[in-house]
Amino acid sequence: MIVLQTIAVAFAMFSAIPVPQFEWNEKNMRYAMCAFPLIGVVIGAAWCVCGALPLPGFAKAAGFALIPVWITGGIHLDGYADTCDALSSYGDREKKLEILKDPHCGAFAVIRLCSYFLAYFALCTCVSFTPRVGVLWVLALVLERALSGLAVASFPMAKNTGLAHTFATAADKTVVRRVLAVLAAVLYVGMAALGGWALVLAALAVLWRYHAVSRKQFGGITGDLAGWFLQKAELWMLAALCACQWGGLL
Can you tell me where the transmembrane regions are (predicted)? Predict the structure, then answer.
């Protein structure tokens, strides 16, 4: 029962998929970050269904771009937009953290979101779906969430409130780090075996950037920064996927 509650907590927080509602407590939140990658499996499965359907090229690309938004409810995009606003302010650390808490969407967030979707959709039009590509992308979506959970359990927090702090405080960090590190290593090997080593490098590069920016600009990570990381990782891995196909590696 605790396992099912743990999965339900992860899906209730990080997806728009209807799940049974449980009161969050110490037991069902302890390993919730370990269940977070399962959302990547669901998104990847829907992505593969879209890829297998006999749809026109642009319609299929639109499906590829919108499926993650529909399934997550846009929670990570919200963090991406807030972080873009904060980084574009060029204010001090306190100013940036204040912007993250502001519920309003600034001009820079709108500009970055429009640019993001334009780039994402353009890359999706370049994807030639095959079963191999589908499996590789499922692994990529799981990997980015494993790395995000690993960061929450490992990186310093920017503040003592917020979503990331709540999950980090409730987590058994030692177990979460070990489970997600092993999962990430297995995914690295699987993706490289499928010819997706470029996607692995892209994910690691964005993770390094996430760590550097969060510490220098904010003094640690927040839930918004975690969303920023996920969206950046997804975009760059998608670019790497297209590059692998163009280069004849897939």
Answer: 28-50, 105-130, 136-158, 179-208
